[in-house]
């Protein structure tokens, strides 16, 4: 970190470490993904040819 006359310069990795330590970089979407669960084909009608 470098400080000079009210100007501060820090590296991006330092900013990330500090914000992550304060809990401010938590993921906004905590739900697990649906990848690999497949597609449900329960609707079979209304213009769908079989």
Structure at a glance:
The protein is 20% helix and 12% strand.
Folded structure, characterized:
- There is one protein chain.
- By secondary structure, this protein is of the alpha+beta class.
- Helix content is 20%, strand content 12%.
- It has one helix at residues 12-21; strands at residues 2-4, 7-9.
- It has a two-stranded antiparallel ribbon with strand order 1-2.
- A hairpin with a 2-residue loop joins β1 (2-4) and β2.
- It is rod-shaped, with a radius of gyration of 25 Å.
- The mean pLDDT is 78.
Supply the helix-strand structural class.
alpha+beta
What are the secondary-structure elements, in order, as H or E? Answer: EEH
Largest sheet: 2 strands, antiparallel
Return the average pLDDT rounded to an integer. Answer: 78
Instruction: Give the overall silhouette.
Output: rod-shaped
What order do the strands of the largest sheet run in, or round the barrel if closed? 1-2
Number of DSSP helices?
Answer: 1
Low-confidence segments, ≥5 residues, pLDDT <50? none
The share of residues in helices is 10-25%
Q: What is the first-to-last residue Cα distance? A: 67 Å
Report strand %.
Answer: 5-15%
Number of strands: 2
Compute the CA-based radius of gyration. Answer: 25 Å
């Amino acid at each position: 970190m470098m400080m000079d006359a009210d100007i501060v310069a820090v590296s991006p990795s330092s900013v990330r470490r500090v914000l992550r330590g304060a809990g401010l970089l938590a993921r906004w979407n905590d739900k697990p993904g649906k990848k690999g669960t497949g597609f449900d084909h329960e609707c079979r009608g209304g213009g769908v040819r079989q």
